[in-house]
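Try this one yourself first.
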């Protein structure tokens, strides 16, 4: 059995070219760990932040990124029970207070060693690509809308930045919950696609000035729930879009952490601002049950072989990306 593997290795921060596919030593599972054969690893904005170099976070080099992994158990380390070799699993990438692909080598590789406590059994092994999309995008969206946001059927929901991974997930899950979904995006092409996955109405605002259109679409009342993970570029517009007694939900800030807040909106509209931090394992279990019932399918923009990881990164950062991008090891791709 070969003890090496292919992995997309980063030796310094930079653009997509910072990742090069090399042959490296295959990890050995330690106590309480298993070795997972990677079948699919979806990309997220966190992968870009790690690659670029996040302020205040030192990533030891060399490093292998990739947070969201689905595959099957290849080896079982000592002090592990209750799992079987060959079992299909989804990895919950957050354990011991740290993130797979950030604090530990991740899924841009053929194999990854992870805590056995972070495994979730998969009901359908043939859908690895779809299942790999769940944690960072759909897990975050589910927790924000349901666990934290308490979204109810019949409520109006505005999704800011609706065409990315988390945004698409919010549109799908919001529609599934029976909300009236208003999706904000940057182009008519994306708006057309958003309507096919559950958006009732779309606001096309490439300049990010969507507030007035949302105000008019809601009868000049505002929306029950607004989700904003874009941050500084859209925060003021999001505040203006919340109705009296509504909720503004935030799970991130991709355009910057410092945002101007006109405090008058808080008291005059008696709104709640709620933070939502990623997901919990129970959120992923709920999503697995929903997927098993065929209530939704993750939206896949493109699937790339691991050997084209640089192209996958460029596609994620491009203006045409809609939904999730997934990387599959070349040996799995060829199987």
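Now uncover the answer:
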């Amino acid at each position: 059995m070969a003890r090496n593997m292919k992995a997309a290795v980063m030796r310094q921060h930079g653009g997509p070219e910072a990742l090069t596919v090399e042959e490296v030593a295959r990890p050995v599972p330690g106590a309480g760990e298993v070795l997972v054969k990677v079948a699919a690893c979806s990309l997220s904005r966190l992968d870009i932040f790690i690659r670029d170099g996040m302020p205040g976070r030192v990533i030891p080099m060399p490093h292998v990124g990739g947070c969201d992994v689905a595959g099957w158990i290849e080896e079982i380390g000592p002090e592990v029970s209750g799992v079987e070799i060959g079992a299909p699993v989804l990895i919950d990438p957050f354990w011991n207070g740290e993130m797979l692909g950030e604090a530990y080598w991740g899924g841009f590789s053929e194999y990854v060693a992870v805590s056995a406590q972070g495994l979730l059994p998969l009901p359908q092994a043939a859908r690895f690509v779809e299942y790999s999309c769940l944690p960072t995008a759909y897990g975050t969206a589910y927790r924000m809308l349901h666990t934290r946001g308490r979204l109810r059927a019949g409520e109006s929901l505005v999704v800011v930045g609706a065409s990315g991974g988390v945004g698409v997930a919010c549109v799908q899950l919001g529609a599934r919950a029976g909300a009236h979904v208003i999706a904000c995006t940057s182009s008519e092409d994306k708006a057309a696609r958003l309507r096919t996955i559950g958006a009732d109405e779309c606001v096309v605002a490439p300049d990010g000035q969507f507030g007035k259109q949302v105000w008019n679409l809601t009868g000049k009342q505002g929306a029950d729930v607004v989700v904003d993970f874009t941050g500084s570029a859209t925060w003021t517009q999001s505040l203006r879009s919340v109705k009296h007694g509504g909720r503004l939900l935030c799970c991130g800030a991709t355009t910057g952490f410092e945002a101007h807040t006109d405090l008058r909106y808080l008291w005059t509209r008696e709104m709640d601002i709620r933070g939502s931090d990623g997901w919990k394992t129970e959120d992923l279990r709920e999503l697995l049950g929903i997927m098993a019932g065929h209530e939704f399918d993750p939206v896949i923009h493109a699937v790339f072989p691991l050997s084209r990881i640089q192209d996958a990164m460029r596609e994620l950062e491009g203006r045409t990306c809609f939904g999730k991008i997934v990387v599959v090891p070349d040996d799995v791709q060829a199987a």
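Discussion: The chain has two domains: 4-133+298-333, 136-275. The radius of gyration is 20 Å.
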